[in-house]
């Protein structure tokens, strides 16, 4: 066997694949994938995300220097038990990428002896897409990557894990698992539940009114994008973070009840203050920083409603080798300016596109 270090990736999907690509950029290690979906392993190998895959997890685990769990969190918890019963390498580091940390850390601390360093990990970036086909080496660039080491882990092991993951170009922060589960519940898990519930409410109305579907196609689709994420992943997150989510739901119901009173009483100043408070806080949040939910790298371009303008713009971007992920006319009236919204994968693409289009006389905006 070669003397290169070996990484075992359990769950070869969007996040596992992106972590693997980031490791490959910086390390000459051998990355072996394991996944219940053989197709995902085969695709990942073809895309050179992993070097190879195995159907014998237990055998590969014995040789691994780094093991990363990147499957839904309830499965990850079950794999910890499998790993705990194996004679792993003495200095192995085990980490995960799961969206919840409390139950995983509890299991790790109960299962492993002090030679095994389990360091929870959660890259706070991603998307509603799934599978290795959507994996990107730069997915976590400038994002926060939360680490939740188990109690007995030495600082040098944490530094070693950061070194393994340096190709992500993420900003590492360390916290304990309960703080992690609280903040992620507030900024990510609970908003997902709200997004799903909004979509389900619209669906209910769509069955009674034929216009709802058409009207929900635009902005509503955008603000509820996260409701298209993997149901398996969110099922596990909700089960793992149950108590935090129940307490946030209680808070939300009190808040909604207050809103109900506001609307019922119809006091124009109080209603204004409610929206003003929300706007003030939202406007104070960093615009281009990466948070828990992926930012939209959207550029708005004023366009005259004339034939050929869209192909002119896409040609400019093509010549500049800038890939776009979505393009849409979001406002177009006869004989007046329309607005084209172009979405990019990265901030750099957005800035490059903005410059190229401005140089050719187009008026562009980053937010509307
Ligand atoms: N999607 C996102 O934006 C983010 C997700 N996460 C976390 O990352 C983890 C993975 O999520 P994604 O990569 O988004 O999902 P994904 O669906 O793209 O990848 C998950 C992979 O795990 C595999 N898998 C499922 N059960 C398995 C099992 N029993 N054994 C082996 N492999 C199994 C799936 O076949 C799939 O290839 C989850 O724990 C999620 O909470 C963390 C940050 C962001
Ligand atoms: O932008 C989105 O779709 C997300 O919500 C990404 C996301 C999903 C799960 C996480 O634990 C962290 C980030």
TrEMBL record:
An example molecular function term from Gene Ontology annotations: prephenate dehydrogenase (NADP+) activity
Keyword NAD: yes
Annotated GO biological process: tyrosine biosynthetic process
InterPro entries xrefs: 6-PGluconate_DH-like_C_sf, ACT-like_dom_sf, ACT_dom, NAD(P)-bd_dom_sf, PDH_C, PDH_N, Preph/Arog_dehydrog, Prephen_DH
Entry keyword annotation includes NAD: yes
EC number: 1.3.1.12
Gene3D superfamilies: 3.30.70.260, 6-phosphogluconate dehydrogenase C-terminal like domain, NAD(P)-binding Rossmann-like Domain
Family: Belongs to the prephenate/arogenate dehydrogenase family.
Name of this chain's protein: Prephenate dehydrogenase
Organism: Lederbergia citrea
